[in-house]
């Protein structure tokens, strides 16, 4: 910065001196203006920018593997790989090729960045984090130059901190490491990737500063095969969505610094957050704390968690309130879903509401009985029955359907396709590529129709109960699963036996 100002000062002094001595300074001025404009454009587009890596400190605190929940298997695999780095001498003695790259793959928000940070603390390495998108510029050669600079900075940083290792973390590596040749006429991507491969090939076991590159991606299928070759990203560690036990661990980690009321049972919260990533669970704990704060409560209660889960799934409550007639329809629709869910999977309803949130006018929330790894035909058929129950309830009780069921039917079609392509439909085992649209469409319609017929029976039998519950729902706007069960089955569950047949 100082040298830029000094240069400008000298230039100005020179122009004044020459003008004073009677020289024509116009060409010099034109050149200076032109050069300045060029510099401004280049700088504003970041052409002089190197990579400015993030620090390893996370909000002033070092991340360790204890801060990561529900990833026991992935952490173990990663630690085993990192031990190669820690045991440098033994590795050299045995002539083992150094580990140059580890790839973390999995859905967004599952803790890949956290794992890379924890890897740096575990190996006592300098840490640099960048994102693949930072390397992609319109101008040829800039990305490659940034890759060179990144590796140089990592070594310099380790030297400065007196460390013998450095970890470079590249998030969204698919942006920079996508298959070469896929961007026609855009050699920049290819050059950047080539440079990364060159730098990784240049890592030696006896380097003064040992480098390890950790990449993260949600799309391993997009990566150029050269990146996955032995000697580059040698290890691939899957970082998956957490199961129920994992969700509980993550919730415990994120409520360590939060006061919880006595009625909070984190196991229940973990059960109700099936399919949530670590980032979503962190958001649930944070939102729950915000609801408690807004209410002026001293501690976070179970109701704050319930509200927070709904917010994370569906979005913030909307102020807009549908017309009275629409609300009635929504209440009947949601009660239809809840009734069939409860009949087919007792205890599965956790809440139903007619409060508009995000793009939904109302919803019924189900908790899965357990975290399933496999789905049976019966399970998927029951899910389809629950999905179509809203529309069927509208039809049986109000005499016609509405567009409110469009999303339910989209989901029912997805579930029906799952049945078909798992070989569980009446078509038997079929190939997704070669099955013509006609038979596919007919089979999807048949599966959904069968479930609709089944549901008409349930809804007709429980017609009065549905009307009763929907009136309560209109009055209270939200019913918990227990309130709902109490209203429908207060006189026992004797109907259930035939309903499940
Ligand atoms: P992306 O693929 O979108 O970059 P990611 O997998 O790298 O996501 P992180 O950035 O590591 O996800 O996670 C974001 C935040 O979510 C973390 O800062 C942390 O608060 C929380 N989080 C995610 N996974 C976990 C976990 N397994 N344990 C504890 N917290 C987690």
CATH topology value of the largest domain? Rossmann fold
* Number of E-state strands: 8
- Strand proportion: 5-15%
What's the quaternary structure here?
single chain
- Give the end-to-end Cα distance, rounded to a whole number of Å: 79 Å
Query: How many strands, which pairing sense, and closed or not: the largest β-sheet?
Result: 5 strands, parallel
Quick one: CATH superfamily of the largest domain?
P-loop containing nucleotide triphosphate hydrolases
Rg, rounded, reads 30 Å
CATH architecture assignment name of the largest domain: 3-Layer(aba) Sandwich
Q: What number of domains?
A: 4
Shape: elongated
Strand order, main sheet: write it out.
2-3-4-1-5
SSE order, one letter for each helix or strand:
HHHHEHEHEHHEEHHHHHEEHHHHEHH
The CATH class designation of the largest domain is Alpha Beta
Bound molecules: adenosine-5'-triphosphate
**Given the structure, what is the number of helices?**
19
């Amino acid at each position: 910065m100082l040298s830029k100002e000094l240069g400008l000062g000298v230039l100005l002094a020179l122009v004044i001196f020459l003008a004073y001595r009677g020289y024509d300074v116009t060409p010099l001025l034109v050149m200076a203006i032109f050069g300045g404009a060029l510099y401004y454009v280049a700088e504003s587009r970041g052409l002089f920018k190197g990579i400015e890596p993030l620090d390893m400190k996370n909000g002033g605190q070092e991340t360790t593997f204890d801060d990561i929940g529900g990833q026991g298997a992935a952490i173990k695999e990663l630690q085993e790989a990192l031990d190669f780095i820690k045991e440098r001498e033994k590795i050299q003695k045995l002539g083992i090729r150094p580990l140059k790259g580890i790839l973390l793959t999995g859905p967004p928000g599952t803790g890949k960045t956290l794992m890379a940070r924890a890897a740096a603390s575990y190996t006592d390495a300098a840490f640099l984090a960048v994102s693949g998108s930072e390397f992609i510029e319109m101008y040829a050669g800039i990305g490659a130059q940034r890759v060179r600079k990144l590796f140089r900075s990592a070594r310099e940083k380790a030297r400065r901190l007196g460390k013998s290792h450095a970890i470079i973390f590249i998030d969204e590596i698919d942006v920079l490491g996508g298959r070469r040749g896929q961007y026609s006429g855009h050699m920049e991507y290819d050059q950047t990737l080539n440079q990364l491969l060159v730098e990784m090939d240049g890592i030696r076991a006896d380097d003064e500063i040992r480098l390890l590159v950790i990449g993260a991606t949600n799309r391993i299928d997009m990566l150029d095969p050269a990146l996955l070759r032995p000697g580059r990203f040698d290890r691939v560690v899957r970082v998956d969505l957490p199961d129920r036990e994992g969700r509980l661990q993550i919730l415990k980690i994120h409520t360590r610094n939060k006061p919880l009321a006595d009625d909070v049972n984190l196991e229940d919260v973990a059960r109700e957050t099936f399919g949530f990533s670590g980032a979503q669970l962190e958001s649930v704990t944070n939102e729950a704390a915000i609801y408690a704060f807004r209410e002026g409560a001293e501690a976070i209660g179970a109701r704050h968690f319930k509200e927070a889960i709904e917010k994370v799934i569906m979005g913030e409550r909307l102020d807009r309130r549908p017309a009275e007639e629409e609300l009635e329809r929504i209440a009947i629709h949601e009660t239809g879903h809840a009734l069939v869910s409860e009949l087919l999977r007792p205890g599965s309803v956790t809440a139903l509401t007619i409060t508009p949130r995000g793009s939904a006018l109302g919803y019924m929330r189900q908790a899965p009985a357990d975290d399933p790894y496999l789905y049976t035909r019966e399970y998927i058929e029951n899910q389809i029955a629950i999905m179509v129950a809203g529309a069927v309830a509208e039809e049986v009780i109000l005499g016609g359907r509405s567009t409110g069921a469009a999303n339910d039917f989209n989901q029912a079609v997805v579930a029906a396709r799952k049945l078909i392509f798992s070989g569980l439909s009446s078509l038997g085992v079929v190939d997704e590529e070669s099955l013509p649209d006609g038979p596919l469409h007919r089979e999807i319609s048949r599966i959904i129709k069968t479930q609709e017929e089944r549901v008409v029976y349930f809804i007709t039998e429980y017609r009065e109960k549905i009307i009763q519950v929907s009136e309560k729902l209109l009055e209270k706007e939200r019913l918990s699963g227990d309130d709902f069960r109490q209203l429908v089955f207060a006189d026992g569950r004797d109907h259930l036996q035939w309903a499940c047949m």
